[in-house]
Design goal:
- There is one protein chain.
- The protein has 286 residues and is α+β, with helices and mostly antiparallel strands.
- It folds into two domains: 3-167, Jelly Rolls (Sandwich), CATH 2.60.120; 193-264, Orthogonal Bundle (Arc Repressor Mutant, subunit A).
- The protein has ten helices and 13 strands.
- The chain has helices at residues 10-19, 56-60, 63-69, 154-163, 165-191, 194-209, 218-225, 229-241, 257-263, 267-279; strands at residues 4-5, 74-78, 83-85, 90-91, 93-97, 102-108, 114-120, 135-136, 140-145, 147-153, 213-214, 245-248, 251-254.
- Strand 12 (245-248) and strand 13 (251-254) form a beta hairpin.
- Helix 4 crosses helix 5, helix 6 crosses helix 9 and helix 7 packs across helix 8 (229-241).
- The longest helix is centred in the middle third of the chain and has 27 residues, at 165-191.
- The structure holds zinc ion (ZN).
Length: 286
């Protein structure tokens, strides 16, 4: 399914922003419906955190820092399985998953297999550079649960960072968090069982989606865990026998979230705690 996306000029964007169209759950720049007057907004909330894209990093920014980025942000709607970057691509834009949208980083290994190394949802961003200028994608980056992402040209981010130490600090802290997340994933892959990792992944997906139905096939789960499809199916069967999970066509249904959490390793919680501690101290945070 091809990606649908739109972009609007800076002038039109500012007009929309200033007229304060009501922000829905799906997008953040709600375009006016032809023939219908824009919704009236009672309060002057343009600069409020709640009127921003549903991404934790963008919502952490102080008002002035957010205004440096806002004219350059575009909303893109990407379907599940859309490839954001192939390995080796120049990454010229930062993407901020919004709401339940999340993407995964899949690293190719031998035998045409790929192993997932990172999940990024509304807590983070894809394409934050470690240095200056475009960087090369190391892995394939694929949309797992489709929806809205905020796209920001890397050049616009760099220019804004030159004007704001707070922006520099927040994104440097996020890059450090993402590195910690990778370290934890490496440790998890080495130390924890397939069952623990499967439970961890499904719990993480549940947190991103905000629901108990996870759009995930056995084959996709196998790919993320770096095991054969039959092994992944056996893991799912074990959870089904314990009435923790059920399966539907193309999806996994969580029946007992508490039991699933107790089956998972603690890696997700460790990473989340680190994010809270490191990003909570960022100078740009409100
Ligand atoms: Zn683990």
């Amino acid at each position: 399914m091809p990606a649908r996306e739109f972009s609007i000029s800076r002038k039109a964007l500012c007009a929309l922003w200033n007229r304060q169209f009501r922000y829905g759950n799906v997008g953040f720049f709600e375009l006016p419906i032809p023939g219908r007057a824009p919704a009236k907004i009672k309060n002057q909330v343009t600069r409020s955190v709640t009127g921003r894209p549903q991404n934790d990093l963008l919502r952490k920014l102080g008002a002035q820092d957010f205004e440096l980025l806002a004219p350059h942000l575009q909303s893109v709607e990407l379907a599940a399985s859309h490839i954001l970057h192939h390995a080796g691509d120049d990454v010229a834009a930062v993407h901020f998953p919004c709401g339940p949208t999340f993407v995964s980083f899949a690293v190719p290994v031998e035998d045409d297999r790929e192993v997932e190394s990172l999940l990024v949802g509304r807590e983070g961003a894809i394409g934050i550079p470690a240095g200056r200028g475009p960087s090369l994608a190391y892995s394939r980056i694929v949309v797992k649960v489709g929806g809205t992402l905020a796209r920001l040209p890397l050049r616009a981010l760099e220019q804004a960072q030159q004007r704001s130490a707070g922006l520099q600090e927040l994104f440097a802290r996020y890059a450090a968090c993402q590195f910690a997340q990778l370290l934890q994933t490496a440790a998890c892959n080495a130390a924890h069982s397939i069952e623990q990792r499967a439970a961890k992944w499904i719990i993480a997906a549940r947190e991103h989606i905000g629901g108990d139905e996870i759009p995930l096939t056995h084959e996709q789960l196998a790919g993320m865990l770096g095991v054969s499809r039959s092994y992944a199916s056996r893991v799912i069967q074990t959870f089904k026998a314990r009435r923790i999970l059920a399966t539907r066509r193309g999806a996994i249904l969580i029946l007992d979230a508490a039991a699933l959490e107790s089956s998972a390793c603690a890696c997700n919680d460790t990473v989340k705690r680190h994010f809270r501690e490191v990003l909570g101290r960022a100078a740009s945070a409100e």
